[in-house]
Amino acid sequence: MRTLAAALALALLAAPAFARTRSSSKSPRAGGYCGKSAVGTTTTDSKGNALECKADKRGRARWMKK
């Protein structure tokens, strides 16, 4: 029972660290959604590629490589 409690405690301590690493990328990336207010704007991603916010085939605003 103690080992189970210890394992649970370690898992709960490690959970926030895993959550931070997955969602830390907030910068735009090719294929990702952009806001409707951003349509027509240009920016660069973390790798230095130029991205433009355009509507895709379905009309959804997405970041696309220029």
Question: Keywords, please?
Answer:
single chain, 66 residues, alpha+beta, 3-stranded antiparallel sheet, 21% strand
Provide a descriptive summary of the structure in words.
With 66 residues, the protein is of the alpha+beta class. The chain has one domain (2-65). It is built from 1 helix and 3 strands; from the N terminus they run H-E-E-E. Strands 1-2-3 form a 3-stranded antiparallel sheet, with no helix packed on it. The longest helix is centred in the N-terminal third of the chain and has 21 residues, at 2-22. The model has no long low-confidence stretch (mean pLDDT 82).
Total strands: the figure is 3
The main β sheet shows up as: 3 strands, antiparallel
Tell me the fraction of residues in β-strands, as a range. 15-25%
Order of helices and strands: HEEE
Class per helix and strand makeup? alpha+beta
> What's the domain count?
1
Shape: elongated
Spatial order of strands in the largest sheet: 1-2-3
The low-confidence parts are: none
Mean pLDDT: 82
As a whole number of angstroms, the C-alpha radius of gyration is 19 Å
How widely separated are the two ends? 58 Å
Please work out how many helical segments DSSP would assign. 1
Considering DSSP H and I runs of 4 or more, what fraction of the residues is helical?
25-40%
Quick overview:
The chain is an alpha+beta fold and 66 residues long. The chain has one helix spanning 2-22, and strands at 42-44, 50-55, 61-65. A hairpin with a 5-residue loop joins β1 (42-44) and β2 (50-55).
Blueprint (SSEs and pairs):
Layout: H1 2-22, E1 42-44, E2 50-55, E3 61-65
Antiparallel strand pairs: 1-2, 2-3
